């Protein structure tokens, strides 16, 4: 029986089969979602206006003509979704939920808004539901009552009403593969190498002691000028890189499209590139000691992923970003689909077999 | 897709026979999960677990989830592979009508082992392996079903609940309240299924958790610091007087009961039922065991014994919620709806 590689197994996951895209496809999906949502908004607003005019024409025939609706662009939608992902992360931190619950909830929102527009369903309303669903799927179940008690101005209905809609948008796939375990494993391996306990690979001639020496000779991280000269200093350097990489995985990796475009191992290796490039290159040389066709391909991929991580929206938006978000939110107020605002009502009707 | 016949109904789900509209000869089982009116916290944990893991695990020995769809009233419908030949429990129990030997047991255990290996390779613990969760396809292939208690491996230092696995198949570490455990819990369950396939009755059928531990002490040996370093630190561990301690049973003891499996088969059984989970075989080691290459060869799946009446049995098996059992195996339920502890 042929052995299944880790890659083979990853390719069977829904994250790969359903939730991985090329940049082009991702953009075209979002454009399609945006266009059909805008049409929905316009149609609904026209219908609403027509109904109003019919009402008012009975008394006074001077109804104002409908102005063209100014809908959100794909870019504006994205900014808004990312902002609510940030809010979601803050709320998860406030509830002291573990990282995987927080990270899964953010990915649920990002996945949901590939096929749904904020003009149809406001992210503010989907956010609590996404976080609550993540507590269930990530084995950190918290009763709805205690969950709601931590949220300001939110009722149990607010959390549960959008849940079914959310699960539909997620296409009933709940598993999200994160880069955290890979990161921990990689750093355990680096620490072992730094302390002379590295496992030499059969195709790598270097002994554990030689590998340890190589690490001491590495260029300093990110343009610094001080080389790590002892094993202790190398260990310190690895710990610094670990902290930085972990922070990137908890913020940029979640807020960008990294999960849609790259695999968990590509994401954590890229975070290592951002944190400490010479260390990352050493690690890859250790993993691929002999020339291989895979390595240059991988380096290109990691390079583009690292750039994506560097370009991430801030997990702590500044004043100008907040101003822009307020503008978008204000604009959204005028282009929301009026038929989809009452999620609780919609949920109730469909539970009872209506709609 | 259309539903053609109701196969079974329980409190948790209704199971229908279905077919593709385009191809009336195609058959699937449709499991419609009922909206739980008492559970106001949205989609239930059982449904979430089942859908989450079946969506990810695609393997010839794991029941296939073809699709999930929602019908009106927000019901979740799982379109599952059609498995018309009942389950292993049904074959084990019918000792009058169904005859089988070591070659058949080897075939079934091989299929179970591959299913569990694949779960573990994907970092999933099944946590409810037992004969009536092993359903049989038309071609004789055994399929692991019911992922209502499944979960991903925990991260280090993150506790899990020990209230899982039906009692007769539950390993000693869970009976002692271990909150940190591994795939070894499923391996123990495989050992109990192996023993039950040979004996044709459950090997250790305890009435209570305490009784279950007593039976394990008798059948396998009393867990002590000597044979299982660290066991006394488990929350629920009870010390044993020296006088009542049963030494770990040797190979002769097993040969006397399970001799039909052969000497190598007994070695495998003993490695699955090791008290100390660290010494227990892994699913991978189980598949690498030399029993598989020892005579007799496993029976080809199409030649395995079959039994009628499987259609209704599939309906019964699928309508259950994870950890639930039918009457007759009552008071054997692993589940307690204590979600607070289920982290």
Automatic annotation (TrEMBL), chain A:
Region (Disordered): 40-66, 198-230
CDD domains, per the entry: CYCLIN_CCNH_rpt1, CYCLIN_CCNH_rpt2
Gene3D superfamilies referenced in this protein's UniProt entry, alphabetically: Cyclin-like (1.10.472.10)
SUPFAM superfamilies: Cyclin-like (SSF47954)
Leader peptide range in chain numbering: none
SMART domains, sorted: CYCLIN
Domain Cyclin-like: 86-168
Originating organism: Lepraria finkii
Lineage of producing organism: Eukaryota, Fungi, Dikarya, Ascomycota, Pezizomycotina
Protein name per UniProt: RNA polymerase II holoenzyme cyclin-like subunit
UniProt entry keywords in alphabetical sequence: Cyclin
Ranges of biased composition (kind: Polar residues): 198-213
UniProt cross-references to InterPro entries, sorted A to Z: Cyclin-like_dom, Cyclin-like_sf, Cyclin/Ssn8, Cyclin_C_2, Cyclin_N
A Pfam family recorded for this sequence: Cyclin_N
Family: Belongs to the cyclin family. Cyclin C subfamily.
Automatic annotation (TrEMBL), chain B:
Keyword Transferase: yes
Binding-site residues for ATP, renumbered to this chain: 32
InterPro entries: CDK, CDK7, Kinase-like_dom_sf, Prot_kinase_dom, Protein_kinase_ATP_BS, Ser/Thr_kinase_AS
Record region (Disordered): 295-327
Pfam families: Pkinase (PF00069)
Domain of life where this protein originates: Eukaryota
Protein kinase domain ranges (all copies): 1-292
Reactions that this protein is recorded to catalyse: L-seryl-[protein] + ATP = O-phospho-L-seryl-[protein] + ADP + H(+); L-threonyl-[protein] + ATP = O-phospho-L-threonyl-[protein] + ADP + H(+)
Annotated SMART domains: S_TKc
Assigned keywords, A-Z: ATP-binding, Kinase, Nucleotide-binding, Phosphoprotein, Serine/threonine-protein kinase, Transferase
Family indicated by similarity: Belongs to the protein kinase superfamily. CMGC Ser/Thr protein kinase family. CDC2/CDKX subfamily.
Protein name: Protein kinase domain-containing protein
């Amino acid at each position: 029986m042929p052995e299944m590689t880790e890659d083979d197994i990853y390719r069977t996951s829904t994250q790969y089969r359903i939730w991985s895209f090329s940049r082009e496809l991702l953009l075209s999906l979002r454009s399609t979602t945006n266009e059909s949502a805008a049409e929905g908004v316009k149609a609904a607003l026209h219908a609403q206006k027509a109904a109003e005019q019919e009402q008012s024409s009975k008394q006074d025939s001077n109804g104002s003509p409908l102005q063209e609706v100014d809908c959100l662009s794909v870019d504006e939608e994205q900014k808004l979704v990312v902002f609510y992902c940030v809010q979601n992360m803050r709320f998860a931190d406030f509830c002291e939920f573990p990282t995987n619950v927080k990270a899964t909830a953010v990915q649920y929102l990002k996945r949901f808004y590939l096929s749904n527009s904020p003009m149809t369903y406001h992210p503010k309303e989907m956010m609590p539901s996404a976080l609550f669903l993540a507590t269930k799927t990530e084995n950190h179940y918290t009763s709805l009552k205690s969950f709601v008690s931590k949220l300001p101005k939110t009722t149990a209905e607010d959390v549960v009403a959008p849940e079914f809609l959310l699960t539909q948008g997620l296409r009933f796939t709940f598993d999200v593969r994160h880069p955290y375990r890979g990161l921990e494993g990689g750093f355990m391996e680096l620490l072992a190498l730094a302390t002379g306990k590295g496992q030499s690979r059969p195709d790598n001639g270097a002994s554990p002691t030689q590998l340890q020496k190589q690490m001491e000779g590495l260029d300093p991280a990110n343009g610094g000028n001080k080389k790590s000269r002892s094993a202790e200093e190398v260990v310190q350097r690895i710990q610094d890189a670990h902290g930085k990489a972990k922070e990137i995985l908890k913020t940029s990796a979640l807020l960008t499209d990294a999960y849609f475009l790259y695999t968990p191992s590509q994401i954590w290796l890229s975070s290592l590139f951002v944190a400490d490039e010479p260390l990352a290159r050493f690690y890859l040389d250790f993993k691929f000691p002999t020339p291989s066709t895979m390595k240059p391909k991988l380096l290109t991929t990691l390079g583009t992923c690292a750039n994506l991580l560097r370009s991430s929206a801030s997990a702590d938006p500044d004043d100008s970003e907040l101003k822009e978000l307020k503008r978008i939110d204000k604009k959204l107020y005028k282009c929301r689909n009026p038929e989809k605002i009452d999620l609780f009502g919609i949920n109730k009707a469909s539970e009872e077999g209506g709609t | 897709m259309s539903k053609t016949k109701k196969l079974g109904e329980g409190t948790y789900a209704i199971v229908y026979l279905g077919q593709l509209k385009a191809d009336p000869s195609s058959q699937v089982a449709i499991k419609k999960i009922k909206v739980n009116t008492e559970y106001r916290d949205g989609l239930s944990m059982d449904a979430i677990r089942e859908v989450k893991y079946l969506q990810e695990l695609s393997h010839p020995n794991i029941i296939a989830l073809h699709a999930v769809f929602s019908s009106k009233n927000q019901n979740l419908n799982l379109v599952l592979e059609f498995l018309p030949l009942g389950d292993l429990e049904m074959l084990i129990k019918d000792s009058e009508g169904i005859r089988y030997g070591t070659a058949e047991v080897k075939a079934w255990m091989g299929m179970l082992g591959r299913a569990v290996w694949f779960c573990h390779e994907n970092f999933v613990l099944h946590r409810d392996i037992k004969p009536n969760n092993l359903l049989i396809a038309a071609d004789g292939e055994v399929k692991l079903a019911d992922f209502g208690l499944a979960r991903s491996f925990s991260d280090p230092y993150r506790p899990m609940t020990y209230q899982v696995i039906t009692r007769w198949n539950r390993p000693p570490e869970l009976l002692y309240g271990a909150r940190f455990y591994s795939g070894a819990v499923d391996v123990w369950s495989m050992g109990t299924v192996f023993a039950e396939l040979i004996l044709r009755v459950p090997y250790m059928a305890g009435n209570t958790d305490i009784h279950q531990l007593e039976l394990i002490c008798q059948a396998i040996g009393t867990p002590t610091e000597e044979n299982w370093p660290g066991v006394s630190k488990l929350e629920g561990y009870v010390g044993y007087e020296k006088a009542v301690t049963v030494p770990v049973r040797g190979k002769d003891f097993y040969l006397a009961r399970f001799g039909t499996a052969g000497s190598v088969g007994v070695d495998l059984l003993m490695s699955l039922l090791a008290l100390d989970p660290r010494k227990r075989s892994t699913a991978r080691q189980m598949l690498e065991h030399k029993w598989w290459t020892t005579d007799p060869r496993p029976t080809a799946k199409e030649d395995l014994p079959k039994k009628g009446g499987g259609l209704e049995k599939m309906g019964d098996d699928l309508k259950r919620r994870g950890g639930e059992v039918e009457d007759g195996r009552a008071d054997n339920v692993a589940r307690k709806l204590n979600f607070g502890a289920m982290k």
